[in-house]
Specification:
Elements: E1 2-4, E2 7-12, E3 15-22, E4 25-32, H1 35-50, H2 61-75, H3 85-102, H4 113-123, H5 133-152, H6 160-164, H7 176-179, H8 189-201, H9 207-222, H10 226-230, E5 237-238, E6 243-246, E7 249-251, E8 256-258, E9 268-271, H11 277-292, H12 311-324, E10 328-335, E11 338-346, H13 354-366, H14 368-371, H15 375-382, H16 387-394, H17 402-419
Antiparallel strand pairs: 1-2, 2-3, 3-4, 5-6, 6-9, 7-8, 10-11
Length: 424
């Protein structure tokens, strides 16, 4: 009998059997035709145990990832993690488009930094496929979620080097747009004022202008997320007491109202002046919504049924308004009795409504000292759990007008001139 701590090799029935103590009992875990093969297996286990790797059973990377992706896909929206159906689909799409063509199947316990480096070299063609850099980072992020799932399900315990792996700096694109997440363009306050005046003046022209008036004024005054606007109910606006009570969102993918929000801070009361302009606009919005959509609970209701406006119509109204003011170039075409559109160009492409959220937050941060606003107040208004989130996402925008920059420069120069006697 050959022993190796917890392993034994015995010659039994013309085979070399490897045995191990499991739950206090000696159990057979493998058998081989030769002692050399059995000893290699034991050595492999000895090294694996030292590295805290589970290799009593080898699991296929492909099989486990597909099981993981299927769970995400079939689970749809996960209430706890706010995973949407499209996010669940993304795991399977990453496998079919990027992982399978560039990452050979292998035992999952063998995956580490070295295999990931080989995968990235092939996917990015050693840096030549710069356009896939951001995609590669997204795929790696989903792979890290997969490794943690494997550990949780006890398929494998040690993914340390895989979890620590990051794309080498030499593969980073020089073009910042290919390297980093595209930042939202913040609408200029002057353009915002022009647009708000336009939609207000035309609010009674037809229902599309009415929608535009409702959507853009809610965006301007409150900076709500699109799902919060669509999920806003008439009973949640209190004109007399001057607040909007955000208690849920509209889940457009599953066509249902949900009380679960992006984070705990998303449920909030956002106040306005009961005697101010915002109150007047909200009163018109409620009156219009009650008159046109009396059966619906939602403020921005669909023309048919009791649900809110669809995501498609929301986008259509927003971009049509931008087009009329020269803020977007759109190609329109008719399909199945519906007018569809393609965005040719727009500075707000990818942030059509988020640009207003950025404006709201940037203005609060800009005027924080003047208005004596606390960090907690600002993050509460924006629906964040931490002020650092608000500041890091929205605090780096320059929304000063040229005259404001010149006035600031004038004050700085005046102060410095007093401190330093200039030589003429």
């Amino acid at each position: 009998m050959t022993t190796d701590h917890k392993y034994w090799i015995r010659h039994k029935n013309k085979k070399y059997v490897v045995q191990k103590i499991i739950d206090g009992k000696q159990k057979q875990i493998a058998d081989f035709p030769s002692r050399v093969q059995a000893e290699k297996y034991v050595e492999k286990h000895r090294i694996a145990m030292h590295l805290e790797k589970v290799v009593d059973k080898e699991y296929s990377f492909y099989e486990l990832y597909l099981k993981f992706a299927t769970e995400k896909q079939e689970g749809g929206r996960n209430i706890k993690t706010c995973i949407t159906k499209s996010a669940g689909d993304r795991y399977m799409a990453h496998f079919n488009l990027y992982i399978k063509p560039n990452f050979e199947d292998c035992p999952v316990h063998t995956i580490g930094g070295k295999k990931l480096q080989e995968f990235i070299e092939k996917l990015l063609d050693k840096g030549n496929n710069e356009h896939l850099y951001k995609t590669a980072n997204l795929v790696l992020a989903n792979l890290r979620r997969f490794y943690r799932w494997c550990a949780k399900m006890e398929y494998h315990k040690n993914f340390t080097s895989a979890l620590e792996y990051r794309i080498p700096t030499e593969y980073e694109p020089r073009d910042r747009n290919l390297k980093s997440k595209v930042e939202a363009t913040v609408i200029n306050p002057a353009d915002a004022a022009r647009l708000l005046q336009f939609v207000w003046e035309h609010r009674e022209d037809d229902y599309k202008f009415s929608y535009a008036c409702m959507i853009f004024h809610i965006l301007f005054y409150f900076g709500f997320r699109r799902s919060e606007i669509l999920g806003l109910k008439k009973t949640q606006i209190n004109i007399a007491k001057g607040y909007v009570d955000v208690q849920g969102v509209w889940d457009a993918e599953n066509n249902v109202y949900r009380t679960e929000t992006k984070n705990a801070g998303s449920k909030r009361l956002v106040y306005f002046d009961p005697d101010g302009k915002a109150a007047g606009v909200l009163k018109w919005i409620l009156d219009y919504s009650n008159k046109k959509f009396p059966a619906s609970d939602y403020v921005v209701a669909a023309t048919r049924g009791n649900n809110p406006l669809s995501n498609f119509m929301f986008r259509k109204v927003v971009y049509a308004t931008y087009e009329q003011l020269g803020m977007a170039k759109i190609k329109w075409h008719k399909s199945n009795n519906s007018h569809k559109f393609t965005i040719i160009s727009s500075v707000f492409k990818g942030c059509m409504s988020k640009t207003w959220r950025h404006l709201k937050a940037a203005q609060l941060i800009k005027d924080q000292q003047t208005l004596k606003l606390s960090d907690n107040y600002i993050k509460d208004v924006m629906g964040h759990d931490r002020f650092e989130t608000t500041r890091n996402i929205y605090g780096d925008h320059d929304i000063f007008e040229t005259t404001e920059h010149q006035e600031i420069a004038k004050r700085i120069e005046a102060t410095r001139n007093k401190q330093v006697k200039l030589i003429n």
